[in-house]
Amino acid sequence: MNPHKLEQYNLTGSIHTLAVKSEGIVEDIMEEVADCIISNSQTKQGTTTTSIINPNKLIGEIYTYSEFDTALNTILAGAGIEDYTIVRADMRFDSYDAEHYEKFSKLNRYLVSLMAVTYKFKNAYRTTNLFTQKQLSVAIKNQYMELENYDKKAESDGNAEAYSRLEERSKRWQDKDLAYEFLDRWFARWDKAIKNIPKVHKAYNDSLEKIWNEGKNAYPCKFRSLTDFLIQYQNCIFCKAQMIDLLSRFEEVGKEKAKSRAENHKKRYGIEYFSQKDVERAINEIKRATLEFFSH
Q: 0.70 cut: is pTM over it?
């Protein structure tokens, strides 16, 4: 990746929303905090209430943990919640650069894919606008965690200050230690994920090989040539080694010509590649933004 471009991969981290569970029914919420909390009570095996809280609606966007903690305690007190556990929390990483989402969509897809193969996510998807075909989001979800990168400006219909968002979501845990969750557990997940770069390449190449073999002789035509195919799926190819491996699988190229074909394609069509250091730089920026939030 272009080093100057990678220097622009800057994120601002903060807690967006969280869900807390408490005993009894939450009622008589003070008007001052009513816009910040939505409560839903259940009567199975005793009455419990799950409340979704957005502290940013109390005083405006919050970018430090100390302010977040003050706002959260104010909302809880205003809702009459004393004893509770956090069962879901969302950590957001925003960019206020209008070009950030499109500029780094492939890199963020790489990061999400790393987590997907590491933890064997079944629910992994990409969404696009029906008419423009522009990518809106890539996401992975299971019962314990989610990771998503999305076009925040499009999602908010232009009402949000942020243009791009990467979001970590922890689910089905019962604790109050948000710092441990996002500084320790998520950091450990990223450290584990970066070791699986070869698995990401294999997962994509296995799928791309199948797509090529099924579509190369299709009618109506899906792609006129192998070059068309490579350009069409260039956002699934992340480095030169992956490209060489992919090309070596095709009888149209063969193992002997795969390297020279990969080099020629890069030279002529400018596919974007990432090194492991590029990936490490991006993950370190996620960690830095997390530390920045919890340190103040």
A: yes
